[in-house]
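Dear Dr. V.,

Thank you for agreeing to look over these. As mentioned in my earlier message, I'm a first-year student in the group and I'm still getting used to reading structure tokens, so any feedback on how I've presented them would be very welcome. I ran two proteins. I've put each sequence directly above its structure. The first is here:
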Amino acid sequence: MSERMPAPDPTERVTRHESPAVLRHAAGLLPDLPRAAAFALAPVLAVQGARTLARVPRLPEAGGDRTGLVGDDHDDAVTVLVVGESTAVGVGVDTQEEGMAATLARRLHETTGESVRWSVVGRNGARLRATARRRLSGAFGEYDCAVVVLGVNDTLGLTSTRRWRREVETLLTALRRGLRDDGLVVLAGVPQLRHFPALPQPLRTVMGLHGRALDDVLTRIADDNPDVVHIPTPAMEDRADLAADGFHPSACGYRRWGDLIADAALLPWRRGGVEGS
């Protein structure tokens, strides 16, 4: 009588054939774990969110012109477009001259001697999807560099990492229509909400983790696109860096942030090479 073959080991079968698929599925879910935690904690977070909104003063967008020139050369100025949410439009300071666009334009002018023309397009409370649908090139013509400042509202709105990536890529397509040859797109890192004193716990931790997941997507997109660089946003841990609401940058905070983007992205780009995250 022939020897019977041993029955397949079900554990071995799962390990050999199903485990890779399971692991890939699990890995795909990891970036959205903070989002899942937020849904699980929804009753607590909803109460904390409502109390925070009631307590934190709602600051207006900065006043003044949303375009300007640093330097004297109108014809050969480097053109920089800043696109985004509240931090793009200067919430937390009185005028656009104290905001992100003018700050990084001044820094670039100081370090290179080039004239810099800056423009701002954005809205307080804007999310990525709405920004990506705007006709950016049609409104502002061509530009040498676009700086994207988005992520807080998508973090608080629990945009999934998959949707976030898709919409970032849509925005990049729109920006490239107006981007000149050898131009640069800077993706400013999603602000680190875990350091925001205006947010109570556990809201601060959950939102901080989800913001980190969205920021990791920006890093990967920059790695895949030679005309894109990702610059992590500095933690605003010093109270002097924050406006009265404890949420938006102060003039000092915008100066730190704008100088960082200029030094880490715009200056190397004008000199022929950029190193991002």
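The second protein is here, in the same arrangement:
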Amino acid sequence: MKETVAGDVIPVTLAGSMQKVTLENYRQDRYYPKVVAAVKRLLAKQRHVSPVEVLMEMGVLMADDRKRWQRGQVPYLEKVIRCNLSKAGRILRILRFHAHDLNLGPSMTAYRHGKQVLRFSKTGVKAIEEAYARHFVVIGKQNPFEAKPRSSD
């Protein structure tokens, strides 16, 4: 419960608050269903997911903006993400928890344009850069998430 300036008491839900995303509450976060759907679509066609791809699937990163960043025309990826940084951080954290639930293995990936290392954040803080660079891969020879071909009866 939260008391407003007027003295009214209103319930606070995780979906409506900016409570920290934790292992205990991430499935109740408003972005969780969107992250799950994005991961499902990506794993149906490939053996890995990356934060950049998830952001694109969710519609908060446009393909043209991603290409400009990859060519080194944008100083850092967060400059062209179409959401606030708090939302982007929540999505990255939920993705990490969800990937763990799916038993996907983490794999750090270097993003470069020629010899230039591409940055994800304005600050360049190591933990933030690693969160964006961490891909999650299917462990084992088969992809259990792959879309099954429809039988033509």
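From my reading of the second output: The CA atoms of residues 45 and 135 lie 15 Å apart. The helical segments are 32-45, 51-57, 63-70, 85-101, 126-133. Does that match how you would interpret it?

Kind regards,
E.
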